[in-house]
């Protein structure tokens, strides 16, 4: 699993004021689009999932819902890898909130518009943690590594107060 928490990579992306985050309000599910530097972790912690899991007959991964004690509600996952990470978060006493598929981060990176939806936003006692879950074998793939790196850098560059 790759957890997007620290960044050692350089990011040649956009300035933080040009990064945009979209999210659905927890009440009513209205779609909200804001500059990244105007959104607080508390606001994102109350967001509804940006998308729900996909399911079709014969799919190769297991999507589902897990009843989280932390959330006192069901939290979605799209693979067994995500379920494993969700279980770790749910049993971690430092985690106060879990949001699945919380928001797409949109930015111009290396002259192209990029969009990525992290797997989880964990609201912890030490601050928010954005989590991307990938099998280790996939984390070496150039597209996956680049996506995780720019997303991680954008989150860290901005911070989440």
Overview of the molecule:
There is one protein chain. The chain has helices at residues 41-45, 80-91, 136-139, 142-158, and strands spanning 20-24, 31-35, 64-68, 73-77, 95-100, 105-109, 112-116, 120-124, 127-131. It has 161 residues and is α+β, with helices and mostly antiparallel strands. The protein has one domain: Trna Endonuclease, Chain: A, domain 1. The protein is globular and about 40 Å long.
* CATH architectural name: 3-Layer(aba) Sandwich
Total discrete domains = 1
CATH topology descriptor: Trna Endonuclease, Chain: A, domain 1
Biggest beta sheet attributes: 4 strands, antiparallel
Runs with pLDDT <50, length 5+? 1-12
CATH classification class: Alpha Beta
Rg estimate, integer Å: 15 Å
Oligomer: single chain
Helix content: 10-25%
Mean pLDDT: 80
C-alpha termini separation: 26 Å
What strand line-up does the widest sheet have? 2-1-6-7
Our estimate of the beta-strand percent is 25-35%
- The structural class is alpha+beta
Shape: globular
In total, how many beta strands? 9
| Total count of helical runs of at least 4 residues | 4
Helix/strand layout:
Blueprint: E1 20-24, E2 31-35, H1 41-45, E3 64-68, E4 73-77, H2 80-91, E5 95-100, E6 105-109, E7 112-116, E8 120-124, E9 127-131, H3 136-139, H4 142-158
Antiparallel strand pairs: 1-2, 1-6, 3-4, 5-8, 6-7, 8-9
What is this structure, in a nutshell?
With 161 residues, this protein is α+β, with helices and mostly antiparallel strands. The chain has helices spanning 41-45, 80-91, 136-139, 142-158, and strands spanning 20-24, 31-35, 64-68, 73-77, 95-100, 105-109, 112-116, 120-124, 127-131. It is 24% helix and 29% strand.
């Amino acid at each position: 699993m790759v957890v997007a928490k620290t960044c050692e990579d350089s990011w040649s992306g956009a300035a933080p004021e040009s990064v945009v985050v979209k999210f659905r309000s927890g009440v009513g599910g209205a779609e909200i689009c804001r500059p990244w530097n105007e959104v607080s972790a508390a606001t994102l912690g109350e967001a509804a999932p940006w998308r729900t899991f996909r399911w079709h007959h014969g799919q190769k991964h297991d999507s589902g819902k897990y009843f989280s004690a932390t959330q006192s509600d069901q939290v979605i996952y799209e693979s067994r890898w995500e379920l494993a990470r969700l279980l770790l978060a749910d049993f971690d006493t430092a985690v106060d909130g879990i949001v699945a598929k919380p928001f797409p981060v949109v930015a111009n990176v290396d002259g192209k518009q990029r969009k990525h939806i992290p797997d989880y936003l964990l609201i912890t006692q030490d601050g928010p943690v954005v989590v991307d879950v990938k099998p280790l074998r996939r984390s070496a793939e150039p597209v996956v590594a680049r996506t995780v790196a720019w997303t991680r850098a954008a989150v860290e560059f901005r911070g989440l107060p």
